[in-house]
Amino acid sequence: MLAQKITYNIVINGIAKVLSIALALFGIGMLTRYLGTDGFGKYATMLAFFAFFSAVGDFGLYSIATREISRAGSNEQWILSRIFTLRVIISCSIFLMSLLFVWFLPYEYDVRVSILIASGAFIFSSSYGLLNGLFQKHLAMDQIALIELSGKVIQVAIIVMIVQLQLGFIAVALAIFIAMLWNFIFIFIRSRKFTKITFRIDKTYWKSFLKESAPMGISAFVTFLYFKIDTILLSLFATSSDVGIYGAAYKIIETLVFFPAMVIGLMFPLFSRYIFTDKKIFIKISNIILKLFTLIVVPLTIVTIFLASDIIMIVGGAEFSDATQVLQILVFALAFIFFGHLFTNILIAGSQQKKLMFALIIAAIINISANIILIPLYTYTGAAIVSVITEFFVVVTTLFMALRYTTYRLTSIKLPFILISGGIMIIIYLTLSFSPFITTVITLIVYTLLLFTFRVITRDDIMHVLPKRS
Questions:
Q1: How far apart are the C-alpha atoms of 267 and 346, rounded to whole Å?
Q2: What pTM does this model have?
């Protein structure tokens, strides 16, 4: 029953997220053509600061709250009411501070205003983001996915109106604000199905909770430094057009990051439940996810490399053609992000967030230092290369730490056969002269058939996750 429920959530989340990706890419396509490389660079800068506010205000509240309510005997209402109150206080404080510092940034007026709007949107996104842990515990992330999909529909509809009426760049920032407000209202209402959250001030509990969550908060900020600081550094060392080129490719990568985040979000409560109580189940679940990610990453990377120019042409148009090479580089960073999500969450479930924090600090130092050196020399290409190096470092480091400091152990996922199947995909791409779409369909079919031939995927694997007939 548990496997079927997880599968249902993954399927519903997957469908909703695919639709969200389609809407996001449609919206990006409209914005790239409406704003141009310079205007889209401003848009990317605003989104980078939105991520900055999220990182500064994280404080590890979401991860540790999810872990705590997922453990046996936890009092959801008692914990979430106090942490939700703390979340709102922190978010509002960050918004008030942004009112002061934003005017000292070396940007044009419209960019500064958009950053302020993004800080307001952060209040709502951070508040409903905390509640996601409640839906994770009850394996009800399908509800979150559907609400976020509706928010994306509204955001894209507003973008269409903005483009049609030529309302300008600031209106684009307002579209994000409205979407975040919509998501917050409906997720808060749906959360009352599981527990009723009220405002509760409890300084004593906050103090003990923050002591536990602070390392995760630092890790979240450090993650921002190596994940999004490249866009801000580009905006300082290069032109808005360069930021726009990089932002177009990076936005495509960001739309795909949803899948590892979604799967790990569903599985994290199980990690927390079994990592200390049942080592065998924990290892089995962890390596099922490792195998799933590997099966996806191999074809995803290959397809993106061969279709990069077509993807950029669809999303951005000819003006963004220089983003093709950036996308081909960044897809390797995306591949590493899949596994980085897995190993970092294993460490969090195993209460190893302090060790994780130090690993991420080193990653941030490497990232910032390399970006400062390479961006002035190679602009967006340098930033893309640094992203790949950083994500690779995170994967290697967190895997080593998970093996050493938790009960996690690697088991066979038949990696050689997966890589052979991927290699045959490459050969097909290099030899066939059909249209890119037809060739891609053929390669994916062949890849899937090879996985069954090599028994990487078996009939039992499929039957295990399908709903059973009564």
A1: 10
A2: 0.78
